[in-house]
Amino acid sequence: PMPIPRTTRQTSRTDCPADRLKFFETLRLLLKLTSVSKKKDREQRGQENTSSVWLNRSNELIWLELQAWHAGRSINDQDLYLYAARQAIPDIINEILTFKVDYGNFSSVKNGASLNGT
């Protein structure tokens, strides 16, 4: 006998074999547990990130205080000094990238002169 193809989707649980129902129930519980554990992991990572941010900020403050003490400045003055120094970084990088040697200034060396004291 030829099997009759089903045209509708199986909707009743009573049509499924018991082992299949048990498998899908176990799978559903496993997926549910996985999603719960992932949610807990995300929450825990959020708490770790918060403590990590606090630790980084406290380390930055301690470092700023040490730099200020070593330079003989107040913390606010050291912060302003560092801010101004950081603003100059792009200009310094540009100067380094566009640096060229002016060989015209070394023409006296070719003629036998020495660089003593210069």
Automatic annotation (TrEMBL):
GO MF term set: kinase activity
Biological process according to GO: MAPK cascade
Domain (Mitogen-activated protein kinase kinase kinase N-terminal) ranges: 1-117
Keywords of the record: Kinase, Transferase
InterPro entries: MEKK4_N
Protein's name according to its UniProt entry: Mitogen-activated protein kinase kinase kinase 4
